[in-house]
Amino acid sequence: MGQSASTSNSSNRVLTPAIVSSSSQSPELPNEATADVDYTEDIPDECLAYIFQFLSTGDRKSCSLVCRRWLLVDGRNRHRLSLHAKVEIFSCIPSLFTRFDSVTKLSLRCDRKSMSLNDDTFVMISVRCQKLERLKIRGCREITDDGMAAFAENCKNLRKLSFGSCAFGTKGINAVLDHCKALEDLSIKRLRGIHDGANTIAPGAAASSLKSICLKELVNGQSFEQLVIGAKNLKTLKIIRCLGDWDKVLQIIGNENNLLIDVHLERIQMSDIGLAAISKWVNMEILHIVKTPECSNFGLVCVAENCKQLRKLHIDGWRTNRIGDEGLIAVAKHCPNLQELVLIGVDATQASLAVIAANCQKLERLALCGTGSIGDQEIACIAAKCVALKKLCIKGCAISDVAIRALAWGCPNLVKIKLKQCRGVSSEVVECLQRQKASLVVNFDAAGSDNEGLDASMSDGVGQESGLEFPEMSGQMVVADVPSNSNGRLALFRAKLGLFAIRNLVACAFRRW
């Protein structure tokens, strides 16, 4: 009844829509079963792979189980792979990389309670994954210098390498730098295999390709001095909680490198000598000076006078009162392109904020945290003169309802404001602010919370590596490709013990912005 004839070849069968009879509400089904009809067989593999890219990890895994073709298409076009790198994964490597033979981004992670994969497994991965361009290793303590050297020989196309909490040392790192000539991004965190500063790490064959170096929580930071100095085309440098005499290193780099754009210096042995050295990087656009108590207004003035392209400036004065109005006024006068300014524990007053508001007409993001000198007058000055301001964070400052009323009539482009631990501000005036500016997003917490510093800490939020999610499944191998954020265990440990409570003052106010 209105049905097309079927053919003997199942691949050419066409499903005819069911017809609803006027005498019955139940549809009439075709004579042949329709379960074998593949509506996607005319879709090219490239288009099918493109569709898979828009699916979540779980949906993509489910789709790979639909049929052999989908399994094959998914495997050949899966470029990112994340593995829970336990020792038991060894037996899964051949079948895993036979299916996923186009992987260019690989993440290996093992928790502290488990034994990680060893050199044999690591080398086997390198043999089957020679197209690898990005590698991330976390907690793989069984990998030695020899394993790292063998891996580098097989994966010479690496462009980005990040590892933390590993046990290999200078020999393994030098092997990577010697064999991976295209390496551009190197991130090293809590490397345990370097026991003294006798063995240095040189840039090797990657000297001309390295563009970004991040060193974090290294006890023997002096071993990496030659690496930083020898990277001639370096554009991003982040040194966070690393021991060593960094004034000397920065002086040498200042005389040889004019390409640096992004610099993050946190809790390292550095003084105004180092700031004067980095002031020679005239193209610098982003600067973070975090908890360096020996730095003062003198060093900041040197930077401001020479680095006139600054767009983002973060200063955590650690309440040492060595950086204040003098340095900030110099920034305001010489850096008109400033778009983001974060001041934590810095004694800024109306004198400097007025100059910043007048000269930095492009300022869009401002954070004032843990500063006793910030009051109603300072906020009123910002409200009246910062016309381009879009996002404002005020935390731990001595302001009252007067400041909030000033914001209600100023800053016409303001879209978001955070008010934390400002006990002089009432909820009633905040409600009035929201009524006055209906589109404004207000995040208000008068008392603040004890754990909030962990969520917004610059020490652990800036420059941190993005982790990968490893859901538990049957067996010892887990495959995923959706990134998520992971906080360092060190920060979590400090938060749980309640240490450094004074540092919980919003160190990175724009983390979620």
Automatic annotation (TrEMBL):
Region annotated Disordered, chain positions: 1-34
Classification via PANTHER family: F-BOX PROTEIN SKIP2, PARTNER OF PAIRED, ISOFORM B-RELATED
Domain of life, source organism: Eukaryota
Protein name (Swiss-Prot/TrEMBL): F-box domain-containing protein
Biased composition (Polar residues): 1-28
Organism of origin: Hevea brasiliensis
Domain F-box/LRR-repeat protein 15/At3g58940/PEG3-like LRR: 126-215, 287-387
All copies of domain F-box, residue ranges: 41-70
SUPFAM superfamilies, sorted: F-box domain, RNI-like
SMART domains the record matches: LRR_CC
